[in-house]
Amino acid sequence: MSMKMWKPTGLAMAAMAATAAVALMVPSAMAQRDPAYEAARAAGQVGEQPDGYLGYASTPTPAVRAIVDDINIKRKAAYTSGAPGGSTVEQFAFVTGCNLINKTKPGEKYMAPDRSWKTRDGGAPVRDSRCP
Amino acid sequence: MKTTRDEARRQTIGRCLAVMIGAAALAGCVQIETPDKPIEINLNINIKQEIVYRLDGDAKKLIEQNSEIF
Description:
Largest sheet of chain B: none
Helix content of chain B: 55-70%
Number of helices of chain B: 2
Number of domains of chain A: 2
Radius of gyration of chain B: 29 Å
Mean pLDDT of chain A: 86
Oligomer: heterodimer
Number of helices of chain A: 4
Mean pLDDT of chain B: 74
Structural class of chain A: alpha+beta
Largest sheet of chain A: 4 strands, mixed
Radius of gyration of chain A: 21 Å
Low-confidence stretches of chain B: none
Distance between the termini of chain B: 79 Å
Strand content of chain B: under 5%
Helix content of chain A: 40-55%
Number of strands of chain A: 4
Shape of chain B: rod-shaped
Strand order of the largest sheet of chain A: 2-1-3-4
Low-confidence stretches of chain A: none
Number of strands of chain B: 0
Distance between the termini of chain A: 67 Å
Order of helices and strands of chain A: HHEEHHEE
């Protein structure tokens, strides 16, 4: 009887260990953009805004809209949970936005401080004067 | 006669209670509509330069650790 009791426990331990291993692996597996999102960026349908969120550089298709809405919700959650003490979510999002515009690749869209959409070229992007 | 009146009163109280509970249940039902518009762009953000520099490292870390959403 005691042996029978142990077996499931051992299995459960193995299952827990496996779950923990998967949980550890997930961040690295997820650390890649969704191909549809990557394609929308490359096509210039979506771009980086100075406020740290994605925007539509052209009238979006329902699919593009869904991608942007989904990512912006996740971004908002990340800014909300990640904003260091003494700063607001908007401030943290803004500084992240400065970095994101900096990281756009040539051909991708970003929004300049005058709210116009620009295509990133080889030079430095036009950013808010307060960006670091 | 007295018992009938008591019964009638009890019934009335019962009905009143039912209506009150119903009303409370309705009042507690909050409807949330999902916004149709995307999140609005707010460029009028108030931020001091020292905060910008203090947040820059955290922002870079956030992008690195959540690269799938950036």
